[in-house]
Specification:
Structural class: alpha/beta
Strand order of the largest sheet: 3-2-1-4
Number of strands: 4
CATH architecture of the largest domain: Roll
Number of helices: 9
Largest sheet: 4 strands, mixed
Distance between the termini: 22 Å
Helix content: 55-70%
CATH topology of the largest domain: Diaminopimelate Epimerase, Chain A, domain 1
Length: 210
């Protein structure tokens, strides 16, 4: 299923265009279904469960080693199959790992979308990864010299509050408008080349192997 309908995309993209009219800065919005697949964690948990199987069987039963091995193999296969269920797989991954992976993906996207190449280094990216329930605003070097990180943290807090109650489009639009106001204050139109990057919503809806 698509993350956004055509109408929702249009609303978000119109907000980007409107916000950028007030500033020479660039705003890019990236939304991802997930920042990673975490399949390695699925295999790790299945392997750990399988490693625990022999101990009670060795001490509490008279099973031959061949039967114990088959039981161990069966547990691994069942565990690996169960963790293919996406909700379960994401549930067993530590929150700190998911946040770290989502942040890594956000930085990768900042570079992939060429925000670091804008004149004056005035690019801002709003990144949301829904599976990790993670949001981040990354601003380039030129902006960080004038706008403290706490300002962007406040933008993220408001965005997350909207996402938590299911108001996705409203959350994105509010974040975009706030970023536009912040940029307009420090980088008004004309202080650098305008519209260096496209104003469309970038949606990452793939599956990952790690």
């Amino acid at each position: 299923m698509e993350l956004f309908t055509a109408k929702e995309r249009a609303t978000i993209e119109a907000a980007i265009t409107k916000a950028e009219r007030k500033t020479s800065g660039e705003i890019v919005v990236v939304a991802a279904t997930a920042s990673a697949g975490y399949f390695a964690y699925a295999i790790m948990w299945a392997a750990l469960l399988a490693l625990l199987v022999p101990w009670p069987l060795i001490y509490l039963t008279n099973w031959p080693v061949e039967h114990i091995y088959l039981a161990q193999l069966g547990v691994f296969i069942i565990g690996a199959a169960l963790t293919q269920w996406e909700d379960l797989r994401f549930a067993i991954v530590p929150k700190s790992v998911k946040r770290a992976r989502a942040h890594q993906k956000a930085v990768e996207q900042f570079l992939a979308q060429s925000l670091h190449t804008t004149k004056g280094r005035t690019g801002v990216m709003i990144y949301v990864s829904f599976a990790e329930r993670y949001a981040e605003v990354i601003a380039d070097e030129g902006i960080y010299r004038k706008v403290p990180q706490t300002t962007w943290n406040e933008v993220v807090d408001v965005l997350i509050a909207h996402l938590a109650r299911g108001a996705r489009v409203e959350g994105f639009v509010t974040a975009i408008e706030t970023c536009g106001e912040i940029l307009a204050e420090h980088f008004p139109p004309g202080s650098a080349d305008h519209y260096e990057l496209p104003n469309h919503l970038i949606v990452l809806d793939g599956r990952w192997s790690a």
